[in-house]
Amino acid sequence: MRRLLLALPFALLPLAVAHAHDEHDHDHDHGTLGAHEHGVAKLNVVLDGNTLELELDSPAMNIVGFEHAASTDADKAKVAAARQQLEQPLQLFGLAQAAGCAEDAQELQSPLFGDAAQDKHEHGHQHADVNAHYQLACTTPGKLTQVDLGPLFKAFPQTQKVNVQLIGPNGQKGVEATPAKAVVAF
Questions:
Q1: Is residue 87 within 8 Å of residue 155, measured between CB atoms?
Q2: CB 139 within 8 A of CB 50
Q3: In this structure, what DSSP letter does residue 8 have?
Q4: Which residues does 65 contact at the CB level (< 8 Å), separation at least 6?
Q5: Which of 18, 112, 121, 127 has the smallest set of CB atoms within 10 Å of its CB?
Q6: Is-contact 182 149, C-beta < 8 A?
Q7: Using 50, 70 and 90 to split pLDDT, how confident is the model at 171?
Q8: At residue 34, does pLDDT exceed 90?
Q9: Among candidates 6, 32, 16, which has minimal Cα distance to 129?
Q10: CB atoms < 10 A from the CB of 166, how many?
C-alpha cells in the first residue's frame, strides 16, 4: 500500500528544500518531509491509474487540541471522536462523486491511539503526530480533477494550513491549502 507514497519524498525533495528555510521549524523529522509545526499539516496525494492514495501527517494538537496521553474522560472522548472522523476519509476529503472513489484500505497511527512512542525534545516537551493513510479505488479517475480540503478544515479547525504534495496524471506539484483556499486541483 505504501509503494507510491514511499517514492513521493524523493520526487518532491526540491519542493521541500524550498520550504526548509522556515525559522519556526524544529530540528527533527517525523518520517515525512518538514517539521512538526502546530496549525500546519502535510498531505500527500497520489493518483496512479484507478488508485488514489492520501497520506495525512498532522501534529495531534491540530486534531484533538493536545499532544499528551489522554488521561481524563474528556481527553479520551476527544481522541475517540477524532479517530472516528479520521476513519471516514470520504467525509474529510471532498472528491467528485463522478470519479466513483471508494475506500480500499486505511491505516491510522498516533501515540494518542496507543501506537508509537511520543517524541521527547531536549526541553522535555512531548510531540505527538497523527498519521492517516488511505487507499481509494476510483472507477472513473479521469473525473477526479481536484480534492476539496474544506471538510478537513471544518472537522479540525485548529488546522490552519495544509502543505499538499500531489502526483497525478498532470505531473507533480506542491501547493498550500488554507480554510479560505481549500480546493486543490490535480
A1: no
A2: yes
A3: H
A4: 78, 158
A5: 18
A6: yes
A7: very high
A8: no
A9: 32
A10: 22
How far apart are the two ends of the chain, measured CA to CA in Å?
Answer: 21
pLDDT tier at 153 (50, 70, 90 boundaries)? Answer: very high
For residue 127, what pLDDT band results from cuts at 50, 70 and 90? Answer: confident
Identity of the amino acid at 107: E
Summarize pLDDT for 73-114 with one digit per residue, the tens.
999 999 999 999 999 999 999 999 999 999 999 999 999 998
Q: What is the mean pLDDT of the chain?
A: 82
Q: Identify the pLDDT of residue 170.
A: 87
The residue type found at 117 is: A
In sequence order, what E strands does the chain have? 40-48, 51-59, 101-109, 119-120, 126-127, 129-138, 146-148, 161-168, 171-177, 183-185
> Following CA atoms 186, 6, 36, 88 in sequence, which dihedral angle do they give, to the nearest 10 degrees?
60
Amino acid residing at 147: V
Sheet holding 161-168, edge to edge: 101-109, 129-138, 51-59, 40-48, 161-168, 171-177
Q: How many residues does the chain have?
A: 186
Q: Grid cell 484500505 — which residue? A: 105
